[in-house]
Amino acid sequence: MSFAIPKNFMFARIPFDKVNWLISSFLIGTLFLSLTAVPAYLFFFGLDFFQIVLFIVMFCACGFSITVGYHRLFSHLTFQAHWAVRLFTLIFGAGAFENSVLLWACEHRSHHKHVDHEEDPYCISKGLFHAHIGWLLFKLDPPPPFDNVADLQKDPLVRWQNRYIHLIAACVAFVLPATIGFLWGGWKSALGAFLIAGVARVVILQHCTFCINSLCHYLGTRPYSSKCSARDSWLMALVTFGEGYHNNHHAQPRCAAHGLRWWEFDITRYLIWLLEKCGLAWDVVWPAATQTKEEDRVVTSSEPVKLLPAITKAAPSLYPAAGGS
């Protein structure tokens, strides 16, 4: 006996056979806990200074690991970094629960190469929901071949993180804050740290990242390029450490700075600058002293000014060891 979903059923259009149940369960489950268990903890135990500080520390450690490491270092090769910087961003980037840097960079490079087209993993043309989270909830495309991240596959630290990504993620995101909480104030602080610096922090950080894929291709200005849907949003820049200047980024993806003017909030840019000054980063691709809409010029610490071609044609050539993708 088979059961057929009526055509007028409210969920009849959902392709349940394509649901990614593992990812969907995690995303929905952590959101549910954030909306129920976290408020319950706050009601019964309150919020102390320790929980606030731990949340901020974990949010910054994992958030900067995504912006500095996953995005600007590994995905776009905007600078080279000491192994300690790479290891830190790989460990705490895993704690953001945005998968391994190998898969993250693979999908992101595909996004830049095919932006607004069918092959774009989180294409805004398929709708705001799809670009934000739908592409994760549903397995609409086959697994990527990883041929555009051949350069990253040569890195032993990247291979190690990719092999143990789920274990590292769970330890960093949940075990670490809970352990710190227990050492600070016993089981009550451990539970609070697990829920606030762990679960709630994962949900908030994930959706900040998701908003770059969705809202920054939907709302905002396009001062540098109108060839794709990417837009600048100062509001998104505030909550993503500078990633919100997305039109700037798509116009010149190899540039380490997304905020190009002094008033554009891009704290990730200054963190990379600090790493460079400390000798932990080098060959940084900085914006040229003058910048125009017609000339997307960038300059590295050790190279003369060079011109970048249009983003729609530049992406494949940005990664010479990436198998032509």
Q: Topology, please?
A:
Blueprint: H1 21-45, H2 49-75, E1 80-81, H3 83-94, H4 101-113, H5 128-137, H6 150-153, H7 156-163, H8 165-214, H9 234-239, H10 246-251, H11 267-277, E2 281-282, E3 285-287, E4 297-300, E5 306-307, H12 311-314
Antiparallel strand pairs: 1-2, 3-4, 4-5
Helix pairs in contact: 1-8, 2-3, 2-4, 2-8, 3-8, 5-8
Structure description:
The protein has helices spanning 21-45, 49-75, 83-94, 101-113, 128-137, 150-153, 156-163, 165-214, 234-239, 246-251, 267-277, 311-314; strands spanning 80-81, 281-282, 285-287, 297-300, 306-307. It is mainly α and 325 residues long. The chain is globular, with a radius of gyration of 20 Å. 44% of the residues are buried. Residues 289-325 have low confidence and may be disordered.
